[in-house]
Design brief:
It is built from 18 helices and 2 strands. A hairpin with a 2-residue loop joins strand 1 and strand 2. The two termini are about 30 Å apart.
Length: about 450
């Protein structure tokens, strides 16, 4: 206990919070009477259960993949810190999601009436506190053929990787404890409202505006991309901006893990072992492959080498762009998604004015811009009835998508700026210049 009293206040608070969560879990009173909205075990489809268990594992693998992808691109003094910033989300967000996050995302809607329909902006955090009522019965409105707890765990993996994506924008210059605080606030105040508004049956953006997002182009990639842009602006440039990526094989390994896991990310979002999942599997492959080759050839046209780093970044951009439309477009259209997204992202990643912001690993150019392009193209090509310009929705649906795109961009960018400022009031977000010079591996973690 002597060591505890010697700790700074921020660490005492953190330890007391995690202790309260752990001990408090023993006193949670679970309601064992199923809600009316739940079906029965007879409604479960074994094939769907097996596929979603597999898909959940695939999506979980993406976060370690992201840590390799980012870790290989930074300087040798910051590999461990950069990889840990992604990896630690597995612990932080899992606890947060099970205690209160899932309720905020998929709990009873808290919002307002539009006409005769009630639309939610966020979920009631008490709905599924400590996974209360999240059991083996299927939810008839959200996931009618798989256990509700499996749906919750599948969605957990999306919640984990979103803040991990942001870390690439401020790599090599942030305090680890400040990042942990930001990650919690971002997940509670930005990710869960977006998740609820787009994916809950009564969510405002999906239910009223008719926005379609098959697997998270808006919820995950746009939110992370604009939060990354805000982070680069708020924290400022690194002292040493120019370095050679330390380990390109790490980047290739990470890209392979991301691509592999993305099949669960996209195809799993059908929530069934069906034709929609199969289509998403195919379009995921097509978009990523096309974006990879487009990125490489565009580099050649502009006098750059055909690099492994370029191939990997192109592949990831294609994966990001197809995400919101993976189950709604044809394979040929997925090739177009990858082609267009790679061109736009490549030019922005190499645009000198954007480079001056020092988004360390081009998170905004890849995830933010890739997510925007995916949403734009989804609004044009999605074959979900009435959901796009070319398939029954007309211009009204297209402009509705554009309005929501603007709304999400503003909400995530300025919301994240506020969170960076809030965290910085309590804990200095940026490391001291001497510690930045030493490297975060040593200064933050005592490892090398």
């Amino acid at each position: 206990m002597k060591n505890f009293y010697n700790l700074k206040l921020k660490w005492k608070i953190a330890i007391l919070v995690i202790s309260a969560i752990g001990i408090g879990s023993l006193f949670v009173q679970y309601d064992t009477t199923p809600l009316e909205i739940f079906g029965s075990e007879d409604d479960l489809v074994a094939a769907d259960v097996a596929w979603l268990l597999t898909a959940s594992c695939l999506v979980l693998l993406m976060t370690p993949g992201l840590s390799f992808f980012y870790g290989g691109m930074v300087g040798k003094k910051n590999i461990i810190s950069t990889m840990l910033q992604s990896f630690v989300a597995l612990g932080v967000i899992s606890i947060l999601w099970m205690v209160v996050g899932f309720g905020l995302a998929f709990g009873d809607p808290v919002g307002f009436f539009i006409g005769d329909t009630y639309y939610g902006v966020i979920g009631n955090p008490m709905s599924f506190l400590y996974f209360n009522q999240v059991g083996v019965l299927p939810h008839s409105e959200i996931a009618s053929t798989i256990p509700f707890i499996l749906f919750a765990l599948f969605q957990l993996k999306f919640a984990i990787i979103t803040p991990a994506i942001i870390t690439g924008s401020f790599a090599e210059r942030v305090r680890f404890v400040a990042y942990l605080m930001f990650m919690v606030l971002f997940s509670l105040l930005i990710y869960t409202p977006l998740c609820h508004m787009i994916w809950h049956p009564n969510g405002l953006l999906g239910g009223f505006f008719g926005i379609v997002d098959f697997a998270g182009g808006t919820v995950v990639h746009m939110s992370a991309g604009f939060a990354a842009l805000a982070g680069a602006l708020y924290l400022g440039k690194r002292k040493e901006r120019h370095h050679q990526p330390t380990n390109i094989p790490f980047v290739i390994l990470g890209t392979g893990m991301l691509w592999f896991g993305w099949f669960g990310f996209n195809a799993g979002s059908s929530l069934a072992a069906d034709g929609s999942a199969t289509l998403a599997f195919a379009t995921t492959t097509g978009a990523s492959a096309m974006a990879m080759m487009t990125w490489l050839f565009l580099d050649k046209i502009n006098g750059r080498k055909l690099s492994a780093l370029g191939a990997c970044m192109g592949a990831v951009v294609g994966l990001v762009a197809i995400t919101p439309a993976a189950g709604f477009v044809t394979v040929s259209e997925s090739l177009f998604f990858g082609f267009v997204a790679a061109i736009v992202s490549n030019y922005l990643a190499n645009w000198q004015r954007l480079k001056q912001l020092d988004d360390t690993l081009d998170v905004f150019a890849c995830h933010g811009v890739g997510g925007v392009m995916g949403m734009l193209l989804t609004a044009v090509f999605a074959r979900e009835e009435g959901a796009s310009l070319l398939h029954g929705g007309g211009w009204s649906v297209f402009f509705s998508h554009m309005g929501v795109l603007l709304l999400v961009s503003v909400f995530t960018f300025f919301g994240s700026l506020l969170l960076y400022g809030l965290v910085n009031r309590f804990i200095s977000f940026r490391v001291d210049p001497e510690k930045e010079e030493l490297g975060l591996d040593i200064s933050q973690h005592g490892e090398s």
